[in-house]
User: Fold this.
Amino acid sequence: MSASVALDRRDRGGPAQPLLHVDHLTKYFPIRGGLLNRTIATVQAVDDVSFSVRKGETLGIVGESGCGKSTTARLLMRLVEPDAGSIVFDGDQVGSPGGISVNEMRRQMQMVFQDSYSSLNPRMTMAESIAYAPRMHGLAHKEAYDRAESLLAQVGLNPRQYARRYPHELSGGQRQRVNIARALALEPRLVILDEAVAALDKSVEAQVLNLLAELKEKFNLTYLFISHDLNVVEYMSDRVMVMYLGRVVETGPVEDIYRHPRHPYTRALFASKPTLDPDRRTTEMPLTGDPPNPINPPSGCRFRTRCAFAEAVCAEKAPALAAPLDGDFDEALPHLVACHLPEAQRATRGPHA
Amino acid sequence: MPDIGMTEPPVLEVEDLTVRFRRRGTDVAAVNGASFTLRAGETLTILGESGSGKSVSLKALMGLLPDYAETTGKVWLNGKEILGLPAAALAKLRGGALSMIFQEPMAALDPVYTIGEQIAETIIQHDHVDRRTAMRRALDLLEQVKIPSAARRLKNFPHEMSGGMRQRAMIALALACSPAVLLADEPTTALDVTVQIQILLLLRQLQQELGMAIVFVTHDVGAAAEISDRIAVMYGGRFVESGTAREIIRTPRHPYTEGLLASTVHGGMRGTKLRTIPGTPPNLARLPPGCAFAARCRYAVDACRDGDIPVAISATGAMARCVRAVETVPA
Assistant:
C-alpha cells in the first residue's frame, strides 16, 4: 500500500487531507457543423467523475481509448477548461476566491505526456527546456541552469553530455527522461503521468518505470498514473480507477481490483490481457466489438450494450459508484463499483480465480 | 536456420536475407542474414524492439523497400524464387499468394474508395472475374472476418469505421485471393486490449480454416505468446534465438531474450524492482564486430566481441546465437 507520508513543508491540509480531490468533473466537447456552425452533437468525454488522491500514493487510471482518462488529466491541469466540477488541491479550491490560483496549482502539479518528442521545443537544448519553467517562475538564470543540470543527473543523463543537446539528438527513452526532469523542475508534489511509457520499447520502459519509482521516493511525490497497459498499472499503482466512456466504473485498492473485479467491464478488460503463457491461451473473446462512440453513449449504464448481464434497469438510470451490493466493504480502503446488478458484480471472481 | 525433421515441403523458405540501406555516405545494416522456413498453417513470430530489423525483413519479402535498399539472399515461395522478381511478376504475387497487413489500417486503406471497392479491385486484378462476382466475394470476406452487417459495411469508407473494424477490413482485403503466406506487421499494436484479443483470435481461427502460413511481427511478448507456433527473436538485424513459443518464453537461452522477458511487466511483479537491460540498442550504421548485444550483456566474454558468433542448436531445433549458449545447450 501507499508509503507512509513524510510531512512536506507545504502540507497545508495535514497528512490526512487528500492531496487532490476532484468532484463531479465534467467536460462535453461540442461538435459544430452545418450552415450556421451550430452545435450538432457533443462528445461526453468526461461525465461526472469524482475521486481523490492521497498523499504519497499512486492512483492508476486505466481504460481504453475514448474512456476519458487523458481528458481527465488535461482538465486537472486546466489545459482544458472543465464545464463543471471542482478541484481541491491539498484543501485549497483551485481557481476560486479563498483557494489557490491555477498558476499556483500548476507549480505543484506537473504532467508528463506520451509523445516525448512533441513535448519538447525542438529549438531548445535539454538544459533550456528544463530551466524554462523555473526561470518563468522567477528563479535567477544561474540557479535555474544549475537545477536543470542536477535534474538531468537525477534522471540518469550525464549533464556534461546531454545538457546542450537538442531533442532530435536523443533517443525516445532519453527524451522521456528529460520530460520527467522538466516536470520535476518546479518541485511539484503531484505528477500526472499520461501514458508516459506507452511509446517506449519494453527494455526502455522498464528502465523508466524503475526511475519513476526511485524519484517518487526521493522527492516524496504523489503520482496519477494513466495508462492503457493493465500490467504496468498493476505494477505501479496503489489504487486503481477504471474508466469507460467518460465515467468511472470501478475503483479500489490494486490487489482488490485485480483479484476481485466487480464490474463486468473490468472483468472483461482483464480477461482480454494476453496470458504470456503459450499453454494457456485465451480461447474466448471477453467482449465483442469496439467501445461505442462517446458522441452518443448508451443511456443509463454506458456498458450495458456490451454487457452479458444487462437488464431493463440498466437502460433507465446510470448506476452510481457505490459499495459492492454484497456488503463486502472496507471503509479505510473502499472498493466502489458502478453497477445495478448484484449477480453481475458477483459473477466469476475474475480471470485469476 | 533450416529446420530439422521436416515432413512436408515448406511454403516459405528464407535463406540469408540481408538488407542494407546505402545512401549519402551512410551504410545501415538493417537485416544481417535472416533465415527461416515456414510450413502451411504455421505461425512464426518475429519478436524485436524498434530498429531490430523485423519490419524491414517483412517489407523485403514483399518487395516494398525503396530503391536505395540493397536486398540479397534467397526467398522461395512454394518452391519458386521470388526475391528480385521483375515488377510485373511481383505485382501478381503481392495480394495474391503473398499478402500483408499493417499496423495502421487508416494508412494502408485508400481513403477515397469504399471497403467493398478496394477488396473487389484486388480480386478483379488477380482473378480476372467480373465486378459482380468480385463484390459478392468481398461480401463473403467481410462476413468471414466477422464484420457485423457486412452488406452495409461494404459501402463504408475507411473513415466511417472504428479502429477494430478497419483492421478486420484490412485482413479481409489481404485474404481476398487466398494467400499462401500472410505477412502481419504489428497488426494489433494500435488497438485497445479488448479489440486486440479479438483480432488475435480471428487470425488464429482464419488460419485454421484457410491453412495459410503467417509471419507475425511484433514487439509485444503477450501477443507473441497468444499467436505463435514458433518465435524468432531479432536484435541488431539478426535472429539471436529461435524456437517454439514455449521454449522462447519459458526457457530463453539468449541473454537478450532473457532480458526482454524480465523487463516485460506482468502480473505479480508488484513491489519488485524490474530487471532491466542496461544501455541502448546498437546503431545499425556502426554495428560492432561479433555479437551486437555484447555491450549490454552481463554474461559477455572476450569471444563475444570478435568474429562470428557460433550458433547452438538443440535437439528440438531451437537455435541460440550466443557464445555462452553453446556451453549450456540442452541435450
Notes: The radius of gyration of chain A is 21 Å. The CA atoms of residues 81 and 132 of chain A lie 24 Å apart. Residues 349-353 of chain A have pLDDT under 50 and may be disordered. The longest helix of chain A spans residues 202-219.
